[in-house]
Specification:
about 525 residues, mainly alpha, 22 helices, disordered C terminus
Length: about 525
């Protein structure tokens, strides 16, 4: 019993000793904490505070190293995550798309086949656009991705080994570009705001009409006497060149508007609103001249035919616009998708059928009028339809610019032709800038703002890509070699216009905007965000 009592006493002694040590350690910790707090407060720097400060400094140095290690672990993790996983997934999707099409079409999807060329062009254009989007210069807006898409198609056509294996038939290329044109026209028609039309000031009307018409007429005269084109084809070229590009102007204006530049006098809003009407005027003039160029007979009959095409296009567009305004009715399910399908399907039918029946200028006008009238009746649901149309444009934009670039062959270009095209384009752009300056006079803008608007009205891209090849495609359909030469000249000018003016215009807007426009001192963020959402 005594041995057992000694063992119990010994265990009790050990437990009490452990408790004492624990309590003393806790007291020491508390004292060090108090001392460290004093040291941190600046009252009594102690050894404990110095130790803590040193450990904090070491902890501050290690997070960057830990972040790098974590990134490396995530990159090479098994199974993969992050960038490596995205790369593997995207490559698998590309290969799968090709494999599925190959399993259906066979040789058409092998090198030299038509579908193979379309798939390669599509992905190369996307990659080119992504690469150009990564080029970011400080204080400047990013370069438009469409330049990368254009150059990707140009390189595919002119690099010897690639051009032998990537071939696309003219019929397929023309059809894909016509579909892209239909989507652009639908977006333009839906983008028109009836309230803005009623509230347009005189300066917006002048800015929409004046520079476009003056540049178109100047380009037509230069093309007639410098390039030797007939008058109908000279005006076709003029209206192709005369349009400004919303794909370049709108994003640049939104960036300036977010920064508060020119907001007080409404410079970004003016340019965004006027750009839509400028494009519609150019497309209307182009379609009218296109119908006259491919009609036979006297000049009076050709003019009458052009007017007739305008009347047919407007009448058919009004009829179809009122139809899809009420069908489907608002009580049906999946209303937005049905409306988007109908407006896209009817626009493509109008563009293709107008060419088939010999009225190539009517299809574009029909699509514009139809989309505008339909949008008036859809009110709040129009924005949802526009989102679906925007997705379709995201798919066909790389194809459009890639195919335009692929149409231009260095071997077929004569140096004198390129020189005359650049001279025509350069003189016409200078006349346009001077006209723009005059159009915004007496509108309350100072000299710096007038100069900025003149340079901002320079870029060309979307409309040139959409209608620049239509005349060439129509000439090929008529199997007229002489007209094909004229169409190739028009396409060459459109290609050079995009290649030269799009990057220069984007850079000039980014450089001159903060220097020439006044920055708003006070700005309502909610109001600005509302303006941006309604305009774009």
């Amino acid at each position: 019993m005594r041995g057992g009592d000694k063992i119990i006493e010994h265990q009790d002694l050990e437990q009490s000793t452990a408790v004492i040590h624990t309590v003393s350690a806790y007291q020491v910790t508390q004292e060090e904490t108090v001392m460290n707090q004093k040291g941190l407060d600046g009252n009594e720097p102690t050894e404990g505070s110095n130790v803590l400060n040193g450990s904090e400094e070491r902890l501050q140095e290690t997070p960057t190293e830990l972040n790098h290690l974590q990134r490396l672990k995530q990159t090479f993790a098994c199974p993969p995550h992050g960038l490596l996983d995205r790369v593997i997934t995207n490559v698998t999707m590309v290969v799968l798309l090709w494999a599925v099409v190959w399993s259906i079409t066979g040789s058409e999807c092998l090198p030299g086949g038509n579908l193979f060329g379309i798939i390669i062009l599509f992905y190369c254009a996307i990659i080119g656009g992504k690469l150009f989007g990564l080029i970011k210069l400080p204080t400047l807006p990013p370069l438009p991705p469409l330049l990368g898409m254009l150059l990707a198609g140009f390189l595919i056509r002119n690099v010897p080994v690639i051009s032998d294996n990537v071939q696309i038939k003219h019929k397929w290329s023309s059809a894909l570009r016509s579909i892209a044109l239909s989507i652009i026209l639908v977006r333009a028609g839906l983008g028109l705001d009836s309230k803005a039309l009623k509230k347009l000031k005189g300066v917006c009307v002048r800015l929409s009409i004046g520079p476009c018409l003056v540049e178109a007429c100047t380009s037509a005269v230069l093309a007639r006497f410098l390039m030797g084109l007939p008058w109908q084809w000279a005006f076709i070229l003029g209206f192709v060149v005369g349009a400004v590009s919303p794909a370049v102007v709108v994003p640049s204006m939104l960036l300036l508007q977010e920064g508060g530049y020119g907001v007080e006098k409404g410079v970004p809003t003016l340019l965004i609103a006027a750009g839509s009407f400028d494009d519609i005027l150019a497309i209307t003039g182009f379609n009218t001249c296109l119908g006259m160029a491919f009609s036979t007979g006297s000049t009076v009959l050709n003019v009458f035919r052009g007017v007739l095409e305008v009347v047919i296009g407007v009448a058919a567009g009004a009829l179809l616009g009122f139809f899809i305004r009420y069908f489907p009715s608002s009580d049906q399910g999946k209303l937005v998708w049905k409306r988007a399908f109908l407006v896209l399907g009817l626009s493509m039918l109008a563009v293709f059928s107008s060419i088939h029946f010999g009225f190539p200028g009517s299809g574009g006008l029909c699509t514009l009028v139809m989309a505008f009238l339909a949008g008036l009746g859809w009110t709040s649901k129009k924005a949802e339809v526009q989102k679906i149309i925007a997705v379709a444009w995201d798919i066909f934009q790389p194809l459009l610019f890639g195919l335009i670039g692929a149409e231009v062959s260095v071997a077929s270009l004569r140096p004198e032709t390129v020189g005359l095209c650049i001279a025509t384009l350069g003189i016409a752009v200078l006349i346009r800038m001077l006209t723009t300056y005059l159009m915004v006079c007496f509108a309350g803008f100072n000299i710096k703002e007038k100069i900025f608007i003149s340079f901002a009205w320079l870029p060309k891209a979307t409309v040139q890509a959409a209608i620049g090849s239509v005349a060439l495609d129509t000439a090929r359909a008529h199997e007229d070699k002489e007209l094909e030469v004229y169409g190739m000249d028009v396409l060459t000018v459109a290609f050079l216009a995009i290649l030269i003016t799009a990057p220069i215009g984007s850079l000039l807007i980014g450089l001159l905007g903060p220097r020439l426009l006044q920055k708003a001192e006070y700005q309502n963020e909610d109001e600005v965000q509302g303006d941006i959402s309604t305009q774009f």
